[in-house]
Amino acid sequence: MLLRWTAPALAAALLTFPPLSPAAAACPFCNSAGQTLSGEVASADFILFGKLSNPQRDANDPGSLNKGTTDLTVELVIKPHDMIKGKKVVTIPRFVPPDGKDQKYLIFFNVINGQLDPYRGEAVPAESKLPDYLKGAIEVKDKDVTTRMKYFFEYLESPDLTISTDAFSEFGNAEYKDVRPLAEKLDPALILRWLKDPNTRASRFGLYGLLIGHCGKPDDAKAIRELLDDPSRSYSSGLDGVMAGYILLDPKAGWEYLTGVIKDAKQEFPVRYAALKTVRFFWEYRPDVVAGNKVLDAMLALAEQPDLADLPIEDLRKWKRWELTPKVLAYAQKESHSSIPIVARSLLKFALSASKEDPKNAQAADYVKVQREKNPRKVELLEDLLKEELKTTPPPAKAEAARPN
User: Are residues 286 and 319 in the same domain?
Assistant: First the structure.
């Protein structure tokens, strides 16, 4: 394989891996995360850090970078291997031209048929803490999940962009049930300081809002509300997590704030979409905080809005709320909804699922019958789509018993 060399300015390329499937990217309010450096470490046979020197071209093919040799003076063994045990210098079977900069390299190796295959190289500033960060990540790899997440939490605001981005990706790939025990033990003053800091990256607000929702006190709820009400702040990202944190700290006042956002016709789409994600969180992850009927009422209020109606309708279908069939299918009688193809599609999917899973649901069955007469091919395609969905979607967790009355 070709060795890829990355300059410090492109250090973020460390994270350019195929994204995880939606089911695997479980953090409710983190941006989608790809492969982390820990994942990359696991796939390498060994990893070394040091300085390159003595580059030699292949005499028989001097124009090729795939041939030749370069020496790596080993300063730190990130991940050991018997093949390089005790070696101070390892000769890489690649010609790496000198860059003229005071840089060192983090190099990932595999061993193929007894030969070194340096498949990835990252140029980093000489003072970079990335090697130490990776070494620590390896040391906590097999520890309990709270210990692991605590390690990455310490690096969330690292001044090294590569390190802080990777630590954030660890949270993005973690399940909520694994983040929650750590969140309950954190220092709310630290997280609130991050939320208030104008230099904090917007992509972090969602996670930080969620974290303080678990470790904060009532006074912190007031501080979160002040942030939400501050006209100088614009939550281009992470508003959902901040609102969720507010509700976790003060369920009554927080839910009133959220429903106010939902019903405010002047709110822009991203704000209302953030509200939808917040509502979804309390149904799917924290049914113990907000009564189920309040969550469903909020979903119906969101479904009133044609530009995002397909999303709450689809959620209600996945949650199997067939008792809401009269209210959901009432949207089909509204020109504002029925004239939008994606909304009409979500209504038909709801009716198809309701009629199949609730044989006594005459209204859903009648709606499907009418649609089948109008466009049998469309109904058939959606039926096939729903059959495929059943093959790949796990059944929803039984959470009803945990919902407050």
Answer: no
